[in-house]
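Q: Given only this backbone (497 positions), what sequence would you predict?
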């Protein structure tokens, strides 16, 4: 029997989000959420009927067209036109996993009962989620301020039989999907198109996915760095608690404790050392990895607020008898943290590449390029080149998107967050960091074998043993790229303690 998650106004944690996605949960609209949606819609219908004051996006045009009144007989068409005209996405497709996250976050946001959607509209989004229907959404087009208008237009067009989806591995039109499923197109009521398109669920989905991956990679980085440290004949003293007690950043202390735990019982770490200190890329692991951990914690906190919020406009508040045109769609609250996280993850890869460089440098008793017969064999020489290339690209991606703003809609929308761009480049940096860490593991495991018969710690040796089931020791030159790809897969699929 499928796992069921009931949509409610309760707090949705990031852990729960990931559990829903990876556990193939089905969604169900809870009674409280249903009642909130119905109550808000009924209130809005009454407000439209009784109010002589224009309501932005409901009885008026959008953006700089806010001063144009729309007749009652055109309110539904207005919403359809909004969705069609705003579907201007281009570039690469948003990955299906992130599209599914967008659907979940949009449902969650609408469930609070401040958006004015009808129940059947929200239920259809639930149907999309439950049947693994992935609307075709594009990476480029959102300025991250009037909500994610462009990507959310692509996300929601199939509700009315427009746009495109991927279903059962096939790409098809929204009309064909509805025919296939035996569904009627959703008839949008006033304000519904705006409720669907106005919001931060595209940015939020990229941020959500990235913080989940960043948490995992930050953890992996400690294990891989510990293996590299032992393979490089590094010292344990930089990880002593006394060092970090006098500079008590939480992430720094956590990293030092974690590395010390990982290396507990290592024969290599206990052997006499002929050097008094290590290069920064080893000695300063607590300070760099720790700063990344602190960044991840901060962004996680911000993300937790964002995915449990109503972010469309106007905000419909039945309890206060108000329909308020404001700015909850503005992506600044998560644009800045996503830029920060991109910088942090880039640095995690940056220090990893430096450890790779040291491992292949022919120092500390390791052979040049980690191969027994260098010269005839180039060994791991070019793995460092690849890591350097990736790290350099990530550095260029770390220019903050959030410092840019280009006015839109004839100047009505005169400050935008570029949060969607922050999200897409963060996504790229996360993938780059994963690849660099995979290359470090590739090198560290190779280097460790040159320290035999001495052993590392039980924890490191278990990772090494599991890794060797996938990636072998390289005794002479071979085609490397499949092994790097297997290393990436190992990080994605292997469970840590």
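A: Predicted residues:
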């Amino acid at each position: 029997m499928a796992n069921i998650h009931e949509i409610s106004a309760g707090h949705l944690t990031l852990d729960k989000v990931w559990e829903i996605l990876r556990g193939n949960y089905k969604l169900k609209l809870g009674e409280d959420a249903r009642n909130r949606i119905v109550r808000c819609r009924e209130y809005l219908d009454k407000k439209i009927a009784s109010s002589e004051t224009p309501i932005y996006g409901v009885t008026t045009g959008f953006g700089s067209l806010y001063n144009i009144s729309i007749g009652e007989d055109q309110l539904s068409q207005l919403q359809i036109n909004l969705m069609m005209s705003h579907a201007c996405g281009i570039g690469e497709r948003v990955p299906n996993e992130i599209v599914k996250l967008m659907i979940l976050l949009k449902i969650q946001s609408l469930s609070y009962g401040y958006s004015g959607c009808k129940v059947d509209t929200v239920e259809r989004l639930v149907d999309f989620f439950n049947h693994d229907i992935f609307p075709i959404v594009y990476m480029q087009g959102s300025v991250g301020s009037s909500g994610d208008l462009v990507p959310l237009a692509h996300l929601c067009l199939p509700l009315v039989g427009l746009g495109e989806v991927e279903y059962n591995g096939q790409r098809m039109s929204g009309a064909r999907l509805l025919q296939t499923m035996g569904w009627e197109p959703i008839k949008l009521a006033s304000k519904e198109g705006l409720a669907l398109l106005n919001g931060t669920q595209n940015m939020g989905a990229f941020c959500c996915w990235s913080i989940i991956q960043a948490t995992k990679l930050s953890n992996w980085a400690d294990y891989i760095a510990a293996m590299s440290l032992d393979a490089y004949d590094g010292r344990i003293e930089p990880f002593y608690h006394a060092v970090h007690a006098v500079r008590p950043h939480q992430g720094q202390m956590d990293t030092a404790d974690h590395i010390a735990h990982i290396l507990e019982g290592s024969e290599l770490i206990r052997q006499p050392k002929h050097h008094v200190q290590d290069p920064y890329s080893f000695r300063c692991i607590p300070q760099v990895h720790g700063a990344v951990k602190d960044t991840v914690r901060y962004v996680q906190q911000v993300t937790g607020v964002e995915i449990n919020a109503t972010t469309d406009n106007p905000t419909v508040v039945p309890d206060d008898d108000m329909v308020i045109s404001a700015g909850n769609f503005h992506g600044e609250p998560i644009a800045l943290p996503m830029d920060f996280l991109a910088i942090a993850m880039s640095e995690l890869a940056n220090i990893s590449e430096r450890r790779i460089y040291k491992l292949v440098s022919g120092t500390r008793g390791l052979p040049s390029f980690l191969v027994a017969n260098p010269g005839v064999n180039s060994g791991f020489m070019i793995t460092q080149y690849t890591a350097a290339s990736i790290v350099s690209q990530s550095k260029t991606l770390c220019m903050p998107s959030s410092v840019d703003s280009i006015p839109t809609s004839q100047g009505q929308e005169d400050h935008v967050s570029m949060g969607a761009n922050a999200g897409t480049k963060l996504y790229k940096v996360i993938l780059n960091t994963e690849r660099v860490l995979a290359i470090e593991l590739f090198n560290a495991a190779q280097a460790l074998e040159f320290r035999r018969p001495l052993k590392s710690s039980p924890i490191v040796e278990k990772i090494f043993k599991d890794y060797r089931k996938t990636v072998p020791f390289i005794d002479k030159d071979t085609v490397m790229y499949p092994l790097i790809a297997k290393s990436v897969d190992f990080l994605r699929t292997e469970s840590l303690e």
